[in-house]
Structure of HEAT repeat domain-containing protein:
Amino acid sequence: MADDLDELIERLAYWRTSDDGYDSPSPRHRAIDALRERGPEVVPVLAGRLRELLAEIDENRRRADAVQRAWDAWYDEADRLRGEHGLGVDISRYSTISDESLPQPVDFTDPYDLRQGIIEALHRIGDERAAPALVAALGDRACVNTAARALRDVHSDQAVPALLDAAALVEPDRDLLNAFEHYGITLAQARRRFEAETSPQGRLHLMALLERLPDDGTGRPDPAENRGALAYFAIDDRDTIARWKALNALNQIDDPSADGLAIGMEDPPSAEVVRVAIVAAAHGRPPGYDLKLVRSITRIKGTLSGTRAVESLLTQESPEPDTEELVLALRLVLGANGSHLEDPVRLVGALHRLSSHAEVGARADFALRRHRALLFERMLHDDEAVRRRAQSLFDDIATPDDRTAFAAFKATRGNRLTKLLRRLKSPRS
């Protein structure tokens, strides 16, 4: 009996019909019919099996998240150490996270179809004893819509908080909106849930939900409240679609009259968007996602937008610049592309001023030593005005070591020019 029931439950995973040209029911539907014939005693068994699967999914999700956090921390430290010690240096001597300690990816086959089949069976049976398991299924992103649909017919007094949480997991669709209407969830309740959400994706999903719920006088949040969440996706170069959507949403926040698709699929984020992301990451936002955000910033720090964003943070005219933002910007500037700088001389001057800062002085001085060639290049520039401005700054800040370094730089540049002229003057063979 028990074995037979277990076999029927496992058949719920098979939703495809046979390809024999006849309109025959799927194995799932035949199993549901058989379960309904068994009577209400199958409900606790189905609900228990669903809870087992949800617990298994939740455990594997926690393991996968832990693996990702470990690798994010490793990548973050490796990038910082390469910036401090230079490319080609064996950073393992300085690393606090050994390669051997890194966990392996979680190998797991998701029984998605079986969970969907059990929820559908519980829905068709319609017994309210299934309600707690259906409410629990709202916590599984893959089950939100089918569970929301079932909970319109299988009532639960505990559904409202779970539905609000579920709305942070998925884009709102008709099943979820219908469930909100059925349980009388108001815009005010949804707005409170939005204000409590910290994950970037959750905030975007909840904002989309708020736009579709009827107004009860509460008012909807200003789209600008999601600027940080949008910036998180706007600088992720691994997800082109999400980046494109986020850039267009940011563009409409800044210009509500703008075309919703004004930003092209391949358009990069602006320096201002990258700056917003740097400021968020420097303050540990989004909570739990800041390392991922730093990794995204790190991948684009050498681009025009990335370099200009870091430059703007370091050269800002502020009597009390934010220390956390300076710490991250000074790390990122080590990998900035000098050819993308708007004003290299101004950046060098800013690094010099920051070198006397009580908390970031050592970092700024390190970056100044790393980038002093930017000033040297402009001291040898073809444009006299550029040369004079660079020379003036050099005269103000140069140490004896800087003067020695410039002499060597100038000699090297001269030797390269001499070799080039000789090559140009030599007769062709």
Remarks:
- The chain has 20 helices and no strands.
- The longest helix spans residues 42-85.
- The chain has a mean pLDDT of 91.
